[in-house]
Amino acid sequence: MTDLLSALGWDADWESTFASYADRGLVPARVGRVDRGRFEVLTGDETLLALGQIGAGTLIEQQPATGDWVALDTQPEGLVITDVLPRRTLIMRSSAGRRSEGQVMAANVDTVLIAVPLERETKLGQLERFLTVAWESGGQPLVVLTKADVADDIETAQLRVEEAAPGATVLALSAETGEGMEALRAALGTTTALLGQSGAGKSTLVNTLAGEEVMATQETRQDGKGRHTTTTRELIALPGGGVLIDTPGLRGIGVHDASDGVAQSFSDIEELAEACRFADCVHETEPGCAVRGAITDGHLTERRLLSYRKQLREVEWAGRRNDPAARAAHAKRWARMTQANKGLGQTKRSDRP
């Protein structure tokens, strides 16, 4: 059975990790799809439906997710997931609203493929957010510029993206014509998660990589906004080996407790900051600020610094939601600010960045 599982990413380390579960008579499988508390699990030679045996107090991010390796048991109510094996990597985004826990997008991914369409101007701030989530996951980001067959100036677009994605490989390709697809296949890992905004050509890309039509496709709307074609996360075995986890198209993505991801996504600014005269430099008007100097001489854009600051504020806010002491300290700062501003009008309190 383990030979069949190897096509899904099973290896000697997973085999060793599972030994204690095997001693209990449990069977390994990988979660291929999650749908309202029911799970499609892949055992290598078949796809089965299983229930999740989750305790009432279990956090959302600890529940089985697409890409997880799990232990299965046959119980009177049917096939049940009894355990989730420790994850190697985890792609998380912020949950909607004011909930403190994050939303799991995929687990045990070694490559995070970010699709960016060339048919319209790239939103660099949005791309930087995808990159932060990718870096924080522990996987390696790979940016693909899709729809190269309809792009006017691929070279300029790729240069702009490369400047916003230090440390990540950037490839331009067309799933329609096949241009760049071989380079992409060579860059994929054992498990790849595909992220991107709606209308980025993800479904066409999945079909091309899978060698068959496994995802429905739709034309991009006339206003440039994408149509949602993927509605859930799904694991797809690729013909050349390895698996791809497709995720629903997103028009935005929130970073969740991702301080390391921000540091890697903005490694150019972090490196510049090390050369600032003052260790606590906030890169505004301080003398000897290497970051402001880079903006002045054209090596860094003001837009990128603002994006960096925005993500740092969001990470700080997420940290406060999960840390009572940090929330209390933040409340005290607001109280002092309110007291200092008495008579100058009301101060509106907001915990959001």
From TrEMBL:
<keyword id="KW-0547">Nucleotide-binding</keyword>
<feature type="binding site">
    <location>
        <begin position="146"/>
        <end position="149"/>
    </location>
    <ligand>
        <name>GTP</name>
    </ligand>
</feature>
<comment type="function">
    <text>One of several proteins that assist in the late maturation steps of the functional core of the 30S ribosomal subunit. Helps release RbfA from mature subunits. May play a role in the assembly of ribosomal proteins into the subunit. Circularly permuted GTPase that catalyzes slow GTP hydrolysis, GTPase activity is stimulated by the 30S ribosomal subunit.</text>
</comment>
<keyword id="KW-0378">Hydrolase</keyword>
<keyword id="KW-0690">Ribosome biogenesis</keyword>
<dbReference type="GO" id="GO:0042274">
    <property type="term" value="P:ribosomal small subunit biogenesis"/>
</dbReference>
<feature type="binding site">
    <location>
        <position position="289"/>
    </location>
    <ligand>
        <name>Zn(2+)</name>
    </ligand>
</feature>
<keyword id="KW-0862">Zinc</keyword>
<dbReference type="Pfam" id="PF03193">
    <property type="entry name" value="RsgA_GTPase"/>
</dbReference>
<keyword id="KW-0699">rRNA-binding</keyword>
<keyword id="KW-0479">Metal-binding</keyword>
<dbReference type="GO" id="GO:0005737">
    <property type="term" value="C:cytoplasm"/>
</dbReference>
<dbReference type="InterPro" id="IPR027417">
    <property type="entry name" value="P-loop_NTPase"/>
</dbReference>
<dbReference type="GO" id="GO:0046872">
    <property type="term" value="F:metal ion binding"/>
</dbReference>
<dbReference type="InterPro" id="IPR030378">
    <property type="entry name" value="G_CP_dom"/>
</dbReference>
<dbReference type="GO" id="GO:0005525">
    <property type="term" value="F:GTP binding"/>
</dbReference>
<dbReference type="GO" id="GO:0019843">
    <property type="term" value="F:rRNA binding"/>
</dbReference>
<keyword id="KW-0694">RNA-binding</keyword>
<feature type="domain" description="EngC GTPase">
    <location>
        <begin position="107"/>
        <end position="251"/>
    </location>
</feature>
<feature type="domain" description="CP-type G">
    <location>
        <begin position="99"/>
        <end position="253"/>
    </location>
</feature>
<dbReference type="InterPro" id="IPR010914">
    <property type="entry name" value="RsgA_GTPase_dom"/>
</dbReference>
<dbReference type="GO" id="GO:0003924">
    <property type="term" value="F:GTPase activity"/>
</dbReference>
<feature type="binding site">
    <location>
        <position position="281"/>
    </location>
    <ligand>
        <name>Zn(2+)</name>
    </ligand>
</feature>
<protein>
    <recommendedName>
        <fullName>Small ribosomal subunit biogenesis GTPase RsgA</fullName>
        <ecNumber>3.6.1.-</ecNumber>
    </recommendedName>
</protein>
<keyword id="KW-0342">GTP-binding</keyword>
<dbReference type="InterPro" id="IPR004881">
    <property type="entry name" value="Ribosome_biogen_GTPase_RsgA"/>
</dbReference>
<feature type="binding site">
    <location>
        <position position="283"/>
    </location>
    <ligand>
        <name>Zn(2+)</name>
    </ligand>
</feature>
<keyword id="KW-0963">Cytoplasm</keyword>
<feature type="binding site">
    <location>
        <position position="276"/>
    </location>
    <ligand>
        <name>Zn(2+)</name>
    </ligand>
</feature>
<comment type="subunit">
    <text>Monomer. Associates with 30S ribosomal subunit, binds 16S rRNA.</text>
</comment>
<comment type="similarity">
    <text>Belongs to the TRAFAC class YlqF/YawG GTPase family. RsgA subfamily.</text>
</comment>
<feature type="binding site">
    <location>
        <begin position="196"/>
        <end position="204"/>
    </location>
    <ligand>
        <name>GTP</name>
    </ligand>
</feature>
